Amino acid sequence: MVLFKYFIAFFVIIGALFWGCNDVSQRENKTITPEADSITILTNLLLTDSLNAGLLEDRAELYLQKGNIDHALRDLQAALELTPDNPDLFILLSDIYFVLGQTDNSIASLKKSIRLEPRNTIPYLKLSEIYLKLDDARTAIQYADEAINLNRQNPEPYYIKAIGLIEKKDTSAAIINLKISANLDSNNYMANMQLGVIYTKANDTISKIYFNNALRARPDDERALYYLGMYYQEQSEFTKAIEKFSRITELYQGNKRAYYNMGYIYLVELEDFENAKLMFQEAVLINPRFVEAIYNLGRTMEAMGDYNEAREQYKISLELLPNYPLAVQGMNRLDDMLRPK
After folding, report:
1. CA–CA dist 283, 279 (Å, integer)
2. Is residue 262 part of a domain?
3. Using CA atoms, how far apart are residues 272 and 257, in angstroms rounded to an integer?
4. Are 156 and 12 in contact (CB under 8 A)?
5. pTM value?
6. 101-152 pLDDT, tens per residue?
7. Interhelix angle 103-116/121-133, nearest 10 degrees
8. What is the dihedral of CA 213, 214, 218, 223, to 10 degrees?
9. What is the DSSP letter of 266?
10. Is residue 306 in a domain?
11. Which domain holds residue 325?
């Protein structure tokens, strides 16, 4: 299920965690402006309020976001000494352990958070994501169900459960949960993309609806545009397909696949060899080792009657991928064509 794993981030560090101690005065002490260095501001505040666990927690989270694990762990340990029963601190601790690759400790920290605050959905969701990463779909689904039982209006656990069901090859149940997730959040990009991918694999044209929904959630998103372009290509709506792929190349100049797909449409479907040549050249310019594009550039040159250049492209293809069948066939085809009768 690699295609589905491509879309899910198995572990998301969630910002703005709740204050376990509900200390309003600690909240009022923090005045962070976007223009300033937040860590510096928190450090200055801690100079006058060194026992403020909330400030230490916030600084630990910022350190973690910046990849400064040692400082994050130091602040978090100090906060835990001040407020050892704050469940949010154990969620943050689990994030640190996860980054360090200490999965067992990360899981233990989340379970500790649940013992301290059983009705907080965040640790259940994180546990579900971790078990997905560990390829334990059954346990991942169990924790997703726990989160659903706590809050049936939260779209996230339905999505995570759906990914677990996909791993278990229960596509029908996955679709149900993805649709619930999408219905609960009209801007749910991930659920709509997954539904689009599932229906694409099933050759169901309803996939277009979900890719368009994903684009409404994230206008000009690269993946959604590409899948929608592929949809139109497969439906032989080549003008619309080229429009989507062209949009990708305008926004994401490094997307070799968009150029390749346009080249393929121009070569095979429209027999517009000049444009096919340009598109394949762009794809190869982005990645000089893109064997499929190099081969098809050769195929285009062959169609244009430039047999020497076609042979050169087939030769490059074979240098990059020895015995590449299509390139071998191309060379043999040219040999047969040019052999004296």
Report:
1. 6
2. yes
3. 18
4. no
5. 0.81
6. 999 999 999 999 999 999 999 999 999 999 999 999 999 999 999 999 999 9
7. 160
8. -140
9. I
10. yes
11. 254-341
